[in-house]
Amino acid sequence: MTRTEPARPGALLVVGDVVTDVVAVHPEPLAPATDTAARIRTLPGGAGANAACWAARTGAAEVRLLARVGTESAPWHERALLDAGVRPRLVIDREEPTGTVVALVGKDAERTFLTDSGAALRLCPADWKPSLLDGVAHLHLSGYLFFADSSRELALVALRAARLRGVPVSVDPASAGFLAELGPQRFLDAVAGADVLLPNEDEARLLAGLPEPAGVARAAAQLSRRIPLVVVTRGAAGALVAERGRITAEVTAEPAEAVDSTGAGDAFTGGFLAARLAGADPAEAARAGCRAAALAVTRLGGRP
Question: How far apart are alpha carbons 237 and 230 in whole angstroms?
């Protein structure tokens, strides 16, 4: 969507991951070889699913989700999505369990992830049907899809199908660690044709091929020469908006008392996409994303 485009009637389709999050909040540093007291909860999660739930929470009229889960937790995940206002299409995997992420959250509310992708990245082109785009105004692809062969093929099929229908596409790169393993250029080649890229600072620098001290504004501007709209999330520093080679907005973060930063980026994505579908310009949508992210960090887990 361009800056001046009006609201687009239709659904948001998210293609991504549903996982089970085990969130462990430990106020004290981890003590090797012994116990560390923690508050531990098992919650529904996944970058794609979280973004879909936040989009529904922040005003998107209809949100759909395509994802793959194991048989052991499919009913639980389906109910959680429905309760959040998302219409799920969950492919049941008979061989692998639902993906699991262990999130270790320290005193500063920052998190470290241990990830077992399980069924999540076993989405494949056979799981795609052209009818999934019927009535869809925007397609969002979770970047995690691009880190395994079968799910990457599915993402490419979905992206091409959306382009043929004139449906705008956004991508969240998802993980600097996985990006480095896949290769930044390979990722950028795969997402060619997308309209919106939503990286965080580390992902933006990595994709732009810039060293750590390089300014994130430079990375955002550089990436927006390849993908028309790039919005870089910066945590407590807010977000940068870059369009066609230049920075067009710098948005401040909303104040919040952080408890757990898990899912803050997904909340930003959901809030941003809901606002864009409602006709907001990129800067306004980024502010909506920051409001959602501020709310997300005040609660445990990645969902509203």
Answer: 16
The H or E element that residue 214 is part of is none
State residue 1's pLDDT score: 43
Distance CA 304, CA 302 (A): 7
Flag the least confident range among 52-61, 159-168, 209-218: 209-218
Rounded-to-integer distance, Cα 84 and Cα 81, Å: 5
The whole-model pTM stands at: 0.92
Cα 186 off chain centre by: 19
What letter would DSSP give residue 91?
E
Residue 152 to residue 174: CA distance in whole angstroms: 14
Provide the pairing of β-strand 246-251 with 239-243: antiparallel
What secondary structure does DSSP assign to 221-256, as a single string?
HHHTTTSSEEEEE-GGG-EEEEETTEEEEEEPPPP-
**Rounded Cα–Cα distance for residues 27 and 212 (Å):** 29
